[in-house]
Amino acid sequence: MILPAYAVTLAGYVGLAAIVAIGLVLLTGVAGQTSFGQASFVGLAAYATALLPDVMPGAPPLLGLLAGLVLTGAVAWALGLITARLSGHFLALCSVAWGISFYSLFGTLPGLHGFNGIGGIPPLGLGPFSAADPAVNVAVIWAAVLLALLGARNLLGSRTGRALRTLAAERDMAESMGIATVRLARAVFVLAALLAALSGFLFAHFQRFISPTPFGLTASMEYLFMVILGGAAHLPGAILGAVLVVVLREELTDWVPRLTGATGSYEAMAFSLVVILFLQRAPAGLWPWLVRRSPAVRRAPAPKQQAMPPPATTPHTGVVLEVAGISKRFGGLMANNAVSFAVGAAEIVALIGPNGAGKSTLFDIVSGQQRPTAGTVRLFGRVLGHLPARRIAALGLARTFQHVRLLGGMSVRDNIALGAHLAGRAGMLRAILRLDRAEEARLLAIAEAAAARVGLAEMLDLPADSLPLGQQRVVEIARALCLGPRLLLLDEPAAGLRHQEKQALAALLRQLRAEGMAVLLVEHDMGFVMDLADRVVVMDFGQKIAAGPPAAVQRDRAVQEAYLGGVA
Amino acid sequence: MTLFVFLALLQDGLATGAIYLLLAVGLLIVFSVTRVIFVPQGDLLAFATLTVAQLEAGQVPGTLWLLDGLALAAVLAEAYRGRRPRVLAFWLLFPAAVTAATLWGPRAAPLLAVPLGLAVVTPLGPLLWRFAFRPVSDAPVLTLLILAMALHFVLAGIGMVLFGADGATVAPLSGATLMLGPLAVSGQSLAILVVAAILVGALRWFFGATLAGKALRAAASDRLGARLVGIDAADSGARAFALAAFVAALSGVLIGAATPIAYDTGFEISLKGFVAAIIGGLASYPAAAAGAILVGVLESLGSFWASAWRDVIVFALLIPALALLSLRAAGRK
Prior knowledge:
By secondary structure, chain A is an alpha/beta fold. Chain A contains 22 helices and twelve strands.
């Protein structure tokens, strides 16, 4: 009976590690943030669990879970608060520092029994039921693993899950879809910490003895290694990585001294070498490789949604956008110099000018990505001031980008549905508990209606980066339409489109205009612009040099000079 | 605490702070040129102390074989790819010369041990770049950081194999003691400050006045632009790593005279360099300098009041620094 006992213990440790790794998949693989301090969260909860009987004699063990979750959640929230606005490597570096600090605190704080640790922790129990038998305990651990896996899967297939995927590389785009990225980044960080805390609670009751050692930096690195080896962006990869690392670690501690006669712990070194090779040769990890090699798993087709128009909007009447004396200076470069113009409801205005004239900068200022050095922007009669991009989006402004900003691996449907973010309200908790299905169906229906409108209905299930560039721009337009905007900003929407596609796009824009939408577009295709626009604003070297109906602008001497470099 | 004790601690803190400053400068150079957060810098620091200590004891340091092995692997890999003969010649001849000087020269001589140690450890920087980072030099900062952490664990393991778990010290550059009234100023502290000042001055000159330095600055400010005007990104990376490794090795020799350094001590020392660099926002050299001195002095005072809490106090410094940076980021948006 020696082997089964060993196997049961191993299964317990694998499960405990997998719970932490699932949190790291969400944090690192999906949201693109890294923590080298997850083990210290495990430790916080484990210590809270172990010390509970001292603080509150006779308290039921489940109270330890609550104490661990609250303590860890609060610490993670505070740590997230100070790093959330900084780029990802600050969080990661900071996590090294707190990983070491907590480890040293566990060892030195009076009352924690130093490196001797705390023993005699009772087994898990609830009322008359007690999990003193390791096999029962392991079953509880794996039930927790499955619950965590299920919750994480639910989260990823939701409104919040889509938004989470933007955090890694497309935060600006996400903000202009109305997503509060800073808050979301902090939320996923706390969620990963809470999963670590759950593991810590179970760890304390499983091992029934804790000391600072398993909560140090090396342990944190091992959690990260699990995720990288298994496949950072895939939930099953967390389990696979946990199995690999835990089993290998046990075997290595057993075999390395026997083979080399060396003492000391070389597992960390061996893992690190493997991880370096993986990061260089197979950054996606093992899971995608396994899936590719196994017979294709067919995904059930998404249930047919009742098509639904984008959120109804009451078109604004009168002046929609008023740009007054906008200047933007980058060091010595004047990107915009006292530019003024206005866009009215049910009007298509084209912003044209040579490359570097300052058109995209102006777009960024209007949509809140950048702040002007001087001047004011008035949208729907309201002065924007320092309003962040996501609030401007909520007012009814949607935009596309000159350089396409889609999440390449995600389906066209999910990419478009990012635009419907503001049409839903379900947050992390509702997503994890699957209480968001009605709302999710509604959001997807909005996305599909927008796709149908721009002619992408057949391509909803394709990964966005499999489309030609011109079509990807159209995906961006559909995403913008999902916001139900009253003002649509399009940055070079016709670039890369074929003739017929351009005509279809022009027809769509005319129809939107007929419905009362205001459109401001930057475009270099003069035929497209002159046919479509009601008015044209011409910029050169940051200044407005002409404005008026297309025909008048085409005759303007200053415009001809800017485009042709002087008139003979 | 008397004024006397305070001044003694301040002197210690300034010297350690100067070391953190050197490390912070090395980190900033590597980060701005390659976007790698050079965690293994601390391991190179420990390698340098332990290498020089073994040389002074008349032993042949294991790092020499590490250098030879990596250099040979680099030569084979580059020859296979048909790279420039000058590069190949350097990586053949330089390690050969260092090996010969170590094996048959009077390696324990005080004038030889330190230069030899630096010559063994410094080339490890570009070699690590060559094998660990260059293959993925376009990867996101976070991937490079994870790789750097993994590399730290590999080097710590190698350090354990080569040097064992015991710490070692090296001979001080100066054993003199200067009496300033009742205060004994150690020659080593002064030597550290002087060497740090010279090195910072030399780096200023290098980046301000030499073509190689300007090319590195160009690579740091705009990688693509630098590539377009013919500055090789791989070469810039190798140079930045060489500079950082040299700075780390020198720091190891300086700090190793006062503090015993073991294979795993370097990591925490370099982390404190990070704290200084983060206080400088990973961007500004003068701010990093102020941060480094602050970290050194606080650590020194902390070890007097509550030695068990020393590291916690230093890392807690990060919190206000990050909060400040965070506020600044919020204000800029």
